[in-house]
Amino acid sequence: MLAQYGAVESCEQVNTDTETAVVNVRYAAKDQARLAMEKLNGSMMENYALKVSYIPDETAAPEGPSAGGRRGFNARGPPRSGSPGLGARPKVQSDIPLRMLVPTQFVGAIIGKEGATIRNITKQTHSKIDIHRKENAGAAEKPITIHSTPEGCSNACTTIMEIMQKEAVDTKFTEEIPLKILAHNNFVGRLIGKEGRNLKKIEQDTGTKITISPLQDLTLYNPERTITVKGSIEACSRAEEEVMKKIRESYESDMAAMNLQSNLIPGLNLNALGLFPSGAPGMGPSMSSVPPPGAHGGCSSSTNVFYTQQGHPESETVHLFIPALAVGAIIGKQGQHIKQLSHFAGASIKIAPAEGMDAKQRMVIIVGPPEAQFKAQCRIFGKLKEENFFGPKEEVKLEAHIKVPSFAAGRVIGKGGKTVNELQNLTCAEVVVPRDQTPDENDQVIVKISGHFFACQLAQRKIQEILAQVRRQQQPKPTSGAQPPLPRRK
């Protein structure tokens, strides 16, 4: 129905608690959105009259082609693939809403008589607030999603806490009412920080006590952790600002990394892979339109995601090191998991024999083109987190080894270590070319890469780019009949 008036970029149902559903539609061009509004407003659909209004997208660049039915205060979805890489982030509002959990008995007071209180909060804080009353029938707590600027989210949060406090006094409710923030598990490791330092600093700076729900509480359909903040309303408000600041930074860093990644692998459709928080309530349409991932931060099953201009991209070999205790989880019962993983990724995946009885790590040998490496490694990282081989306060960080021709190692290092330092700064991975290596029988040496999934992937892609340049320079004129390594077409 919508497509007859133009190219529909997205169609997203907005959570409501009334009998009327609200759907936000984004068209590729303003004139298409206006035409749809004119034609559809008042038209009948299954005996109901449609009411259509036009919302200009204030975050769109004036000269840009995109506009249409979106809330003007909040740019949604990942940066477009043509936007700048890691260095220059787009200057739009972060797409992370504030998600709170409130005791069910206070929901009525937050909404107010005929919705007056919630309308007042929305107006004063320039925010859009969804109270998910119908979710989890009978549950002691209900989620609230607040879309706004960081300041708007914080102001709305403070007002809601004040309303609950007043209602508690009026109803003689004596228990403490902590602030409960919901956050996707993908961001929680960085919020906690190494050895809990980030969280401790927020507690010290704000005078609050903060706890985070255990990893075991997560399910495939609920990838959120509960961050409980105890203290005065003022202290909790300050803590909310700091917690959400860290979560938004993590989100933006991951989106920038994904955006850069999509430019490095031709035809990589990150949304279809479902690598990023998917199905999480309150997330943008680009995230909720794919099935929930097979592991937290894992990949959803998809086919025909990749294409390359040269038809058959060159195969790569990566050695990924996993905890020895995790081998059973990766192999699965009667080898089922590793077979499915291999089939899904389109890669050969083998686990090398243990080097000694007390080996702490095992080497997984992954052979396949770039997209297969991306999918296979993504699933392995996700599986290790899902199976609790890394604690709730840890991010999954693994070491990967790539073999490079010994004559190309210098190019990876760069003059005075310049290239390898730039690599580390760009990707946030640790990249080491061990000194004094003896080349193997194929005259190759090892480059070691350590870091979380996106960091590892970016570093691998950048190193492969350097190797491709070296190969092109080595073979300027391939002789007829020979099969040189396939160069990238311009």
From TrEMBL:
Keywords: Cytoplasm, mRNA transport, Nucleus, Repeat, RNA-binding, Translation regulation, Transport. Residues 75-90 have a biased composition (Low complexity). GO terms for biological process: mRNA transport; regulation of translation. InterPro entries: KH_dom (IPR004087), KH_dom_type_1 (IPR004088), KH_dom_type_1_sf (IPR036612), Nucleotide-bd_a/b_plait_sf (IPR012677), RBD_domain_sf (IPR035979). One of its GO terms (cellular component) is cytoplasm. It holds the Pfam family KH_1. One of its GO terms (molecular function) is RNA binding. Its main location: cytoplasm. The keyword Chaperone does not apply. Residues 471-482 have a biased composition (Polar residues). It is found in: Cytoplasm; Nucleus. Residues 94-165, 175-248, 314-385, 396-468 form the K Homology domain. Residues 60-91, 471-490 are annotated as: Disordered. Belongs to the RRM IMP/VICKZ family. This is Insulin-like growth factor 2 mRNA binding protein 3. It comes from Dicentrarchus labrax. The lineage of its organism: Eukaryota, Metazoa, Chordata, Craniata, Vertebrata. The gene is igf2bp3.
